[in-house]
Each structure stands twice: as C-alpha cells, then as structure tokens.
Amino acid sequence: MHVRRKPGSLVPLEIDICRYAAELHKEGIADFHGYDMAKQLATATSRQSLAAYGTLYRALGRLEDMGLLKSRWEDPRLAAREGRPLRRLYALTAAGHRAVREIHNAAVAARHPRKGWAPA
Amino acid sequence: MGAGVTGSFMMVVFALTRGWVRMYTRGLSGDAAEGRRAEIESDIWDMQHDSDLAPGVVSGSMALVRLISGIPDDIAWHFENASTEEQVMARRGLSLAAATVLVLSLWSVPSFNRRLDVPPCAAPLPQVAASLQLEVIKCVGSLFSLPR
Predict the structure, then answer these.
(1) What pLDDT, in 10s, does the model give residues B2-20?
(2) What's the pLDDT score for residue B2?
(3) B72 touching chain A per CB within 8 A
(4) Chain A residue nearest residue B32, CA to CA
(5) Does the pLDDT value for residue B121 go beyond 70?
(6) Residue A111 and which of A40, A84, B5, B77 are 20 to 30 A apart at CA?
(7) What is the pTM for the complete model shown?
(8) How far is A67 from B39, CA to CA, in rounded Å?
(9) Which member of A36, A54, A61 has the closest CB to residue B70?
(10) How far is the C-alpha of B45 from the C-alpha of A9, rounded, in Å?
C-alpha cells in the first residue's frame, strides 16, 4: 500500500530520528550509526522491539535526500582494528537542526495555544 | 531450551536477513545496492554483539520481526533505486521472494518451539440403525411422490 505524503513532510519515525540525533549531538555525540539509532528509538519510546531494517534505513536515506542528515563511511582502519564490518555514520546537518527546532516549537505551540482577543 | 538452540535460531534469522537483502538489492546499479548490503551487514554484526541482548528466543524473535516488518519498505526502496526496465522484472520476482522469506521465517519458528499436546479425538458418532435409515428415506421420498 503506497501512502502519499506532502513533499518535504516528515513521518513520525523520521521526526523521532531527527529529534534523537539532536539529543545525541547535545550529549557530544555527533555521529551515529543505524543500530545506534534503532536502540535509541526503542529506549526512548519504551518499546521492546527495534526498528525494522527496511523501515529504519529507508527513513535514514530519505532524511539524507532531504538534506537533514549527512552520512559518511567510517575509517576502514578503525573497523578493521575492531574486527567488524564498516559502519555508515550519520550526522544531523544545519538544516536538520533547524527542522528539529521547528518541530519543537510547533509542539509547544500546539500544547499552549496563544489566547487572542475576542471580538466585541 | 539450550543456549545453543536459541543461538542457532538467531543465526538462522540473520542468514535469512542476508539472503533477503541480497535478493532485493540484486540487479540494482550504482553504489546504493552495495551500500545497503554493507549497512545491513554492519547492523547484523552490532545486534549479534550487543551485550544488552542475551542470545535467546526473545532476541531471535526481535531480529525476525525486524526482518519481516521491514519487507514492504525494502521493496519500496528497491523500486525507488531501480531503473524503469528493472522495475518491470523485479516486481514479480520480489513479490515471490518476499513470500518465500515469509514462509521460511514462519517455518523456522515452530522448529524451536515445544511440541503441542494434541487433544484426544472426539468420540465417534453412534451407528444409525439400517431400519431407521430406511424410514427416513421413505419419509423424504413421500414428499416427492405425486398426489393420487
């Protein structure tokens, strides 16, 4: 089933990814990899299950296409030293940080609507 | 259930995952396919070596759910990265492959479950006397007989 969405809009998973990427950045962790994010999402949402492979990596790819994330492959020497496969590392871009602020502001505005003057 | 069996369950699921990734990235040109395969391989390694996850049925089931529930997005990703010609051929092949992976995944789970106790069969129906059967036939037949 193909779900149409407005161009540029984010689905809840993508919003969560951006939000938790921003939180990791605040903790001094600029880069994260897919499994990192899957665990972060599971912990933050108190779910017992990790995000599906297809869903998670397609969302990460979409966010990168939208310019909210950037990715790079890690130094192969590091992976070789630790005896594991190469990781693709993601980081929130400046546009991604702006998007997270806008999402946060929109959420706050929705919780606390401004009281306007009533007409006489 | 021993750790060896439950650990094997997880390894089976990872093998299925690798097989599925190879299937839906087949025929794609460019770095997208290679990148996807490498990324999933790295994810599998991370999950396998995650000290927060004890090897067992729960972790294996978690890996299985990660595989199955992501299949629609995997198929969508394939078509987003495929050329028009590839899409025509891939549409049928991927549907068949997805169904195969689903069946194999579901088949792998009962292998590690306990055998279910089968309830005893219900008592056999009582034998109906031949004379009673004849009476029933006569009654039904009288409904179709012509009036005199």
Answers:
(1) 445 457 888 999 999 999 9
(2) 43
(3) yes
(4) A61
(5) no
(6) A40
(7) 0.72
(8) 20
(9) A54
(10) 32
Mapping DSSP onto H, E and C, the string for chain A reads: CCCCCCCCCCCHHHHHHHHHHHHHHHCCCCCECHHHHHHHHHHHCCCCCCCCHHHHHHHHHHHHHCCCEEEEECCHHHHHHHCCCCCEEEEECHHHHHHHHHHHHHHHHHHCCCCCCCCC
Inter-chain CB proximity A53 and B43 less than 8 Å: yes
Question: pLDDT tens digits, residue range A70-118?
Answer: 999 999 999 999 999 999 999 999 999 999 999 888 888 887 766 655 5
- Rounded Cα gap, residues B130 and B104, in angstroms: 51
Q: Which tokens is A40 given?
A: 């972060």
How far apart, in whole angstroms, are the C-alpha atoms of residue B37 and residue B22?
Answer: 7
**Nearest Cα residue to B22 out of B46, B1, B38, B7:** B38
Q: What was the ipTM of the complex prediction?
A: 0.85
Nearest to B42 among A1, A56, A86 (CB): A86
- Give the integer Cα–Cα distance in Å for B37 and A43: 26
Contact B48, B56 (CB under 8 A): no
Longest CA span, chain B: 91
Best to test chain A binding among B23, B25, B66 (most A CBs inside 10 Å): B66
| Structural contact between residues B37 and B74, judged by C-beta atoms closer than 8 angstroms | no
Q: How far is CA A68 from the centre of its chain?
A: 8
Q: Do B69 and A88 touch (CB under 8 A)?
A: no
User: Are A108 and A101 contacting, i.e. CB atoms less than 8 angstroms apart?
Assistant: no
